[in-house]
Amino acid sequence: SDGNEPPLNDDDLEVWQTDAKDPNEYDRNDDGNAHHFADLHKGMLRFSVNFGKWIIWAEGSNDGAAPRWFLDEKGRVNNLFRRTVKRQIDYAKQQKDIYDADLIAAGGIKGNMTQAGKQAGERAKLWFAWSRQSGMNSTTTNSLKQAQSLNGIPTKQEDWDTDPLRLGVLGGIIDCARKPEKLKPGQKPYRFIENKKDYMITMNTNVEFVEYDEQASHPHEEVKRGYEMFNNYLDTFIPEHLRYFLQKLMGYSLLGGNPERLIAYFYGPTSTGKSTLLNLARASAGEYGTTVDP
To answer: Using an 8 Å Cβ cutoff, are 23 and 36 in contact?
Structure first.
């Protein structure tokens, strides 16, 4: 998903809830930084033990990007760690302001300062020094490594993308969990729903889901053009009596498993649309699709 990571900016971060305590309540060491970082991003970051990578929840942003989990291929977690450093700097500045105000009240004479003012000055020195240390690459790396094993952070590969009936698409999830025998008249066996953190879905087609009967009049020209091209393909290569079978086969290929133990071979003369259909299916599947050597 390297080329399809959703945007992650300050707008996204502002909507994150945080359980972070006052910076002074954390130890000034790598372990303290790790706990501070984990509290600051609680529920929004997980670490994959199998892949050795962080997984980040993007809540969605003002430009219309939908919420989803994504595998951090670009080291964005290092940028997120800077939020921890910024809180340390802001705390140091706050303590410095308290010290300065107390010094002014004491007429500029340190001996006349209150104990609280003096302690604020000491905390300012300590946290300015530690924030500089925290911002160094080595400390960042060590702190993030410590955070990987904290409660609620590590995950295994089998924790993710396990529901065979939920397909991640651009903007949400296609949920195919409805049982045919329980469908009401006119009700479809699938529904388009919003992605949620507890679905634990990282994979995505990176293709917008548009109902077939809405494509011909869709406001985006590329969708209408795709609809026209696909129907031209069907008219050219796929007889009417085979289309329902093909639809079932393509839908079955999107399930997260192979319960019927099927394998499909496309066999026939050249220039009969086999590769075109396979390329279309592969592109539509996005991260769910792949190619294998025969």
So the answer is: yes
Cα–Cα distance for residue pair 121/118, rounded to 1 Å: 5
- Collapsing DSSP states into helix, strand and coil, what is residue 46? strand
The two structure tokens encoding residue 44: 């929004």
Residue 286 CB contacts under 8 Å (≥ 6 apart), including other chains: 4, 203, 204, 205, 206, 207
**Whole-angstrom distance, CA of residue 113 vs CA of residue 111:** 6
Contact 135, 143 (CB under 8 A): no
Q: Residue 240: its pLDDT value, please?
A: 95
Q: Are 44 and 67 in contact (CB under 8 A)?
A: no
Task: Quote the pTM value.
Answer: 0.82
B/e letters for 238-247, b = 16+ CB within 10 Å, e = fewer, are beeeeeeeee
Measured CA to CA, the distance from residue 89 to residue 100 in angstroms comes to: 16
Per-residue three-class SS string for 257-282:
CCCCCCCCCCCCCCCCCHHHHHHHHH
Q: Who contacts 191 (Cβ-Cβ below 8 Å, separation ≥6)?
A: 174, 175, 178
**Beta strand pairing call for 172-175 and 68-71:** unpaired
The angle formed by the CA atoms of residues 281, 58 and 251, to the nearest 5 degrees, is: 20
Q: What is the pLDDT of residue 3?
A: 44
Q: Name the residue type at position 192.
A: F
Cα 94 from Cα 235, distance rounded (Å): 71
Residue 182: per-residue pLDDT: 84
Average of pLDDT values for 66-88?
92
Q: Is the pLDDT of residue 204 over 60?
A: yes
Q: Does residue 166 contact residue 176 with C-beta atoms inside 8 Å?
A: yes
Percent of the chain with pLDDT over 90: 74
